[in-house]
Amino acid sequence: MKIAVWGDELAAWVAVAQLAAFGNDVSVRAEDGAAAGGAVQPGQSSVRAEPGLMTLLQGAVAQRRLQAGPESQCLEADIHWLAMAPDEEDQAVALVQRLAERGKAPLLLVNQSNFGIGASDRLQALLDQDAGQAVLCLPDTLQQGRALEQFGRPEQLLVGCEDSAALAQLKALLRPFSGGVQSVQLMTRREAEFSKFAITGMLALRLGYINELANLADLLNVDIEVVRQGMGSDERIGRHYLAPGCGFGGQHFTQYIEGLAGLFSEKRRSTLLDTVLAENQRQMELPFRKLWQHYACDLSGKTVALWGLAFKPGVANIDNAPALRIIDALRAQGVQVRLHDPEALCEVRAHYGEDAQLAYCADKYEAAEGADALLLLTEWPEYWSPDFTRLAQLLRARVLVDGRNIYDPAQIRAQGFDYYGIGRL
Fold it and tell me: How many CB atoms lie within 10 A of CB 230?
C-alpha cells in the first residue's frame, strides 16, 4: 500500500517505521526531516531516543520502503496517517482540503492527532464520503519507551469509524501485526476521541488520589505502602497506576488532562481535573520541601545530587518532568546541583545550558560525591540496588529523599541514612 504519514509526533514515526517494515511504501513530507542523501530524521529528540525506532527507520530507508519527498508526492498516497501536534489542527484542515481538491478518488485518512473531541468529524466533513473518502479516528495509546512494541503487538484497538469499507481497509493494513488485531472496540469517531480523554483522565485521578493518600499518611503515621497493598488486593481497584510519588509528567499525558479539564469546566463547571493538575504541580515539589524541612529551611552552601531527570524511566523526555521544578527550586536557593540520568542528561543540558550551579555527571556515584543529600526522582532500574556503603562514603551527609518509594526505609535507616519517602514510615 502507498501510505503518507503526516506529523512529527512519536505516533507518526512509529507508524512510519512499522508500516514500512511490513512492505508498505511510506512517504513523509521533506520538511518533516529529509537530510542530504535521502536520510529521514525526526525533529523531536524524544522521538529519536525511542528504543529501536531510529534503527527501524534507517532500515526502511535502506530498503527503499521509506522516502521523504515533496508534498505533491505525498498527496498521491491512498492512505494518509495523521499524527500531528495538538496545535496543528489548522495545518491538518488545510491538508485535507488539498486532498479533497484531487477529486473523487477513494482515500482513507487515519487520524491519531489530539485535536479535541469532534475533530475527526470536522475533517470528514471536508471529504466526499459517498466517493469512498473516509476518516477513521485511531486514538494514540502509545507509551514512550514501549511505542514500537505496542504498535507491533496491540492487545486491542479503539477505532472510531462509521464506514464498514474503511474499517476493513484498516484491518487489512494492520493485519501483519501479531497476525491481525483480534479485539477491535468499534465506536463513532467522537466516542473514540472522548474515550482517549476519559482513559487519560482516569489514570490522572488514580495517580492524584494515591498521592493525596500518601501525603495524608505522612500526617497520620501510617505507611502508605501497606495501605497500597491492601487497596490493590481488592479486585475492583487493582494495583495499576497506584504508586505514590513526586508527581506525573510528560507532554501528551498532561495535554490530554488539560484538554479534558477544559471540557469539564466549559460543559459542567467542574474543577475536578483542574484540582488534580494543581495538586500534581505541588506534588512535584514535595522532595524539595522534605529536604527544606530536614535542613530547617536553610539550604545555603549545600550541594544536592539528583538521580533521575526524565519524566519516567525508559525515555529521554523531560517534558513537564518533576526534576525541572526541583532543579529550579534548588537553584533559587543557591544550591549546587549535581545531576545524573541514564538517558535525559543531554536534554537537561540543552534546557539549562552551562550553569555554574549545575554539574552534569556521567556516573550516578559521581553525582553523589560531596553532596549534602541525594534526591531520587525517576525510578530507573539502575537506581534500585545501589551500593549504599559506597554512597555513604561519597555523600557529605547521609540524607536520602526517595521520590518514588523504591527503597526499604528500615534498611536504609539501618545504614545510617536519614530517609524520607512519600507517605513511608
Answer: 10
Q: What CA–CA distance (Å, rounded) separates 216 from 238? A: 21
- Phi and psi for 2 in degrees, rounded to 5? -95, 115
**What secondary structure letter does DSSP report for 88?**
G
C-alpha–C-alpha distance, residues 20 and 18, integer Å = 5
Quote the strand ranges of 169-270, DSSP E: 184-187
Instruction: List the one residue out of 337, 312, 315 whose CA is nearest residue 246.
Output: 312
3-state secondary structure of 217: helix
CA dist., res. 180 & res. 177, Å (int): 5
Cα–Cα dist 156/178, whole Å: 11
Q: What are phi and psi of 225, to 5 degrees?
A: -65, -40
- One-letter amino acid identity for 389? T
Which of 303, 293, 350 is closest to 331 using CA atoms?
303
Domains and CATH numbers, the chain: 2-187 (3.40.50.720), 195-282 (1.10.1040.10), 285-420 (3.40.50.720)
Name every residue whose Cβ is closer than 8 Å to that of residue 338 and which is 6 or more positions away in sequence.
Answer: 303, 304, 305, 306, 359, 361, 366, 367, 368, 369, 370, 371
Round to whole Å and give the CA distance between 373 and 398.
6
Residues forming a β-bridge with 110: 81, 136
Tallying the residues shown for the chain, one arrives at: 425
Q: Is 187 helix (H, G, I), strand (E, B) or coil?
A: strand
**Euclidean distance between CA atoms 399 and 356, whole angstroms:** 23
What backbone torsions phi and psi does residue 113 show, to the nearest 5 degrees? Answer: -80, 150
Average pLDDT, 10 consecutive residues per value, the chain (425 residues): 94 95 92 50 81 92 91 93 95 96 93 96 96 96 91 89 93 79 85 96 97 97 97 94 95 92 93 96 98 97 98 94 98 98 96 97 98 98 97 98 98 97 97
Q: How many CA atoms lie within 13 A of 195 on its CB side?
A: 18
Q: What 3-state class would DSSP assign to 113?
A: coil
Name the residue among 153, 107, 157 with its Cα closest to residue 6: 107
Q: Which residues pair with 5 in a beta bridge?
A: 28, 81
Which runs of E-coded beta strand occur in 336-405? 336-340, 358-360, 373-376, 399-402
